[in-house]
Design a protein that fits this description.
540 residues, mainly alpha, two-stranded antiparallel sheet, 4 strands, disordered C terminus
């Protein structure tokens, strides 16, 4: 049994790690937003909103390992509760984590359904120079009201959809309504918030299928393949300039005697001149990048990028194999779609589910691994959004470019990441259900043993890993699990979403393997907002 001093030291270490993680999250959010936002269209309110939203997304993801740590910390490895972990203290810890989820999820609802839409529509109206600030605010509030109504409807539906039914079938309508309000009061609004968050998580699942699945293959392969040589691209660009200039000269030669050019030649001349301007713009950027010290520095780090790429592709394969085996286990051994494909324990072991219990023996390796997986999930999501851009069905709305991203695009980026982070908790649960539910908790079971010296049987208390068969008073379920599985139909949708995630990952892997190296100035041909006197290094 751990001594009180050692137990206190573990708790202090855990909170110190969480505090350092918060500081690292804030620093990362500031650097990331400042790195991608447009220098010419930078706005204070949109910048603060993007940093705050991104920080909330990362802090919410960091709450999962904290939740698992706290329920595990209350028990010793031999299955007994620690001396200080009586019923009241355990309830206080559970309530603290629950209130943490309440707070963060409420802030996410506020950001997704009010603040981010308001700031977005405000800056959309700001593009019109004739409108006043008062008109901008009124118009933004008018459009934002639609999002507020949707949020209110989700909360109402979640609050009054009963998870249990009255026992008396002959009850009156008033008794049924009274039962609904009693259910709402007993759950302290958990069902309403859970339904709203689960609805957003469903959207986050679609975003994860679109962006994260592709990013998990694109990010490592881009690191391994690298970018094309700036010197080689500049040579090709010079040849293209000479070819275009020859075409322009040929067309202009037709009008040397004063004859007007035909309409077809005028259109061709205009297209060639536009192409020439683009090529000369590329020439200036390529020259700047070729002579940049940053290019030389990144060239020296090329072996390190390859190593990171190999590491990331191995992590992706570990993630995908574990997710496939977990989903296959649900398909074979769960109670079916009516239960949301919920399965307790694991009949088919997957690599991640086997690795986490091994790391639990050395504090805090398992929490570090969970944190790394969550961060990897978020970074690959960011990579997928950067590579694909922000689309509305077949219409491309915005591109994410270093130093060129508009404020509205940053707001979209942060909203998408907020939704993806909500789905991250379920993805981790899919990979290691028993670990996410109970952490490293054990409970005691009575085992009959036969003694050679004494006739008869005796009982011995043996620790066993917490599972669905454990008594409720012996194992504490994480608050994350309560939010994840309040409604079975969401769990069923997440199950099918996992299969779609695997399919998109395989497609993205094939596409990423077939694609060649990226241009060192990828995006210059497409971005009309790139100024000629403001070159920058794009993806060196």
């Amino acid at each position: 049994m751990a001594t009180p001093g050692a137990a206190s030291a573990e708790l202090v270490i855990g909170w110190c790690i969480f505090g350092l993680l918060l500081l690292a999250i804030l620093a990362f959010c500031w650097i990331y937003v400042r790195k991608y936002q447009s220098r010419r269209e930078s706005e204070v309110v949109s910048t603060i909103t993007a940093i705050f939203s991104l920080a909330i997304a990362l802090i919410t993801s960091a709450l999962l390992p904290v939740d698992i740590f706290l329920v595990s910390y209350m028990k010793n490895q031999n299955g007994t509760f620690k001396d200080w972990a009586n019923a009241n203290v355990s309830r206080q810890i559970e309530d603290t984590v629950l209130y943490g989820y309440y707070t963060l999820y409420s802030v996410i609802l506020f950001c997704v359904f009010f603040w981010i839409p308001f700031v977005y529509f405000y800056y959309e109206e700001k593009d019109d120079d004739d409108t006043s600030k008062c008109t901008q605010i009124k118009t933004a509030l008018k459009y934002t009201l639609g999002f507020v109504v949707i949020c209110a409807l989700l909360l109402l539906v979640g609050a009054f959809v009963p998870l249990n039914v009255p026992n008396n079938k002959n009850s009156t309508e008033w008794e049924k309504v009274k039962f609904l309000f009693e259910e709402l009061g007993s759950s302290h609004g958990l069902a309403a918030l859970s339904f709203s968050i689960s609805s957003l998580t469903l959207i986050g699942m679609l975003a994860a299928i679109t962006y994260t699945a592709y990013g998990m293959s694109a990010l490592p392969l881009n690191l391994i393949k690298g970018t094309r040589s700036a010197a080689y691209e500049r040579l090709e660009n010079t040849e293209d300039i000479e070819e275009v200039e020859q075409h322009i000269q040929m067309i202009k030669s037709k009008s040397k005697d004063g004859r007007p050019l035909p309409a077809r030649d005028k259109r061709a001349l205009k297209q060639f001149e536009e192409r020439l301007r683009t090529l000369k713009k590329r020439e200036r950027h390529l020259e700047f990048i070729e002579n940049s010290w940053w290019t030389k520095f990144c060239g020296a780090l090329r072996p390190l990028k390859i190593i990171w790429g190999i590491f990331f592709i191995l992590v992706a394969l570990l993630f995908v194999i574990s997710l496939f085996l977990s989903n296959l286990d649900k398909a074979l051994h769960s109670a079916g779609i009516d239960s949301g494909f919920i399965i307790f324990g694991a009949n088919l072991s997957n690599p991640l589910n086997m690795l986490l219990p091994l790391l639990q023996t050395v504090f805090p390796l398992d929490y570090i691994l969970i944190t790394i997986i969550i961060m990897y999930f978020i970074f690959t999501s960011m990579a997928g959004i950067r590579n694909i851009g922000i689309w509305f069905f077949w219409i491309r709305l915005y591109k994410i470019r270093r130093g060129r991203t508009r404020p509205q695009a940053l707001l979209f980026l942060c909203m998408i990441l907020l939704l993806i982070v909500l789905h991250t908790s379920y993805m981790i649960y899919s990979l290691a259900p028993q670990y996410v539910m109970y952490g490293s908790q054990n409970y005691l079971i009575e085992t009959n043993i036969t003694s050679d010296n004494h006739k008869g049987n005796s009982t011995l208390s043996v620790p066993k890993r917490c599972d669905a068969d454990a008594p409720e008073d012996q194992c504490t379920v994480t608050r994350t699990y309560l939010f994840l599985h309040k409604f079975w139909f969401f769990s069923a949708a997440y199950y099918f979403g996992n299969w779609a995630f695997l399919v998109v990952f395989l497609i993205g892997l094939i596409v990423s393997c077939c694609k060649g190296k990226k241009s060192v100035i990828e995006g210059v041909d497409e971005d009309s907002d790139i100024s000629d006197d403001e070159p920058s290094v794009y993806s060196v």
